[in-house]
């Protein structure tokens, strides 16, 4: 017993040292120190599952071969020239600082000549994806957080097996936790037909605590390197036929053609390398020279626990801070943390039209009350909050000043900023932004706008729920 207690306290002090050396934020470090010292054994287990700083852990460093490094080295060349106006497309001249920031933090260049099509909701999205899959001649790369069996998964299987029989290389990457209901029968059926299938961070017993909290939340489809898709929509029938509890699920996806698809392919290739421990995708043959398909400028923004910087947080923070007229945010999980909350408040108090649109309903009671715990402060500063009454609004879209749009997988919470692997596309295009702004305003008309004076009169029981839920915000 004495030996066990001695070993326990040695472990406690070792963890304390790691927190002091590598802790990201003082408040979070203090919280974990209190948990470790006040909750015997349990505090340590929670820390191993939820608290470790993966930015300092080589286990989470994705491999990059020489070819990928050469591809990403173009970033330096871009950095040397981006400040010269004659080398900068007109659409991003007002956003040079933002373009430089994303290039530095996420290693992807703004690309010109893209055709981008926003896709509203599941039916339009999967119709477009299935149409694209049918055109595949060389390869198909698919990655989802949730890949759930049902009619959509059956349609995927049918097309993929047929395309594999035609000689198309097909790779499917799914998150092991998000797609935990995906059966071995389904997976083995794909593998038996020559399709490569891997789970991202499988939850094996020996590595459960170190991996369960770090999930791949990306949704990516790439066909022949010519066309790509990303956004908020997973493979689940609820995006088409609805949910028996929440009703219809509303979401936004993005179809991409042009050079930006190369950046999306790089994200997939590095995730594939990490999940499979192979380098077979990390070469330039999967990056093709694109013609000009359209006039949109787009820049991929990827982030994860292995990133040097919180690129998604920096993206959202910069869009809010650079807004001159308005910033409209649609997101189901708005748990902004102090930095983003301050940015939203400062923008609103400076006369910027700041609006948040999210569901009145939620797929998690804990998340619902955590989200609402920020409402009072935001409303008091002039931020307008709208609750969409129908079904569940799952889109992750920001539009600003009729010029800038972000569409992707990332929520406004600590999990998306620091814990999950995420990918967004930053779009410098006035036509797309204006169209999505109009859609946003139409949704606001359908929604209930919260009133600050009424909201502060809410029952104390609701305040208590918010207070309790807020404690968990750092791990949501």
Structure in words:
By secondary structure, the chain is α/β, with parallel strands linked by helices. The chain folds into 3 domains: 2-52; 61-96 and 111-297, Endonuclease, Chain A, CATH 3.30.870.10; 311-475, Endonuclease, Chain A (2-Layer Sandwich), CATH 3.30.870. Helix content is 44%, strand content 19%. The protein has a 15-stranded mixed sheet with strand order 4-3-2-5-6-8-1-9-16-15-14-10-11-12-17, sandwiched between helices. Strands 7-13 form a two-stranded parallel ribbon. The longest helix has 21 residues, at 2-22. Mean pLDDT is 85; it is low at 58-65 and 74-85.
Brief summary:
This protein is of the alpha/beta class and 476 residues long. Helix content is 44%, strand content 19%. α2 packs antiparallel against α3, α6 (121-134) runs parallel beside α7 and α12 (311-322) runs parallel beside α13.
Radius of gyration: 22 Å
Shape: globular
Strand content of the residues, in percent? 15-25%
The residue ranges in which pLDDT falls below 50 over 5 or more consecutive positions are 58-65, 74-85
Kindly report the CATH topology of the largest domain.
Answer: Endonuclease, Chain A
Our measurement of the CA-to-CA distance between the termini, rounded to an integer number of angstroms, reads: 37 Å
The CATH homologous superfamily of the largest domain corresponds to Endonuclease Chain A
For the largest beta-sheet, the strand count, sense and barrel status come to:
15 strands, mixed
CATH architecture of the largest domain: 2-Layer Sandwich
Q: For the residues shown, what is the average pLDDT?
A: 85
What number of domains?
Answer: 3
CATH top level class name of the largest domain:
Alpha Beta
The number of E-state strands comes to 17
Count of runs of 4 or more consecutive helical residues:
19
Percent helix = 40-55%
Lateral arrangement of strands in the main beta sheet: 4-3-2-5-6-8-1-9-16-15-14-10-11-12-17
- Helix and strand content put the structural class at alpha/beta
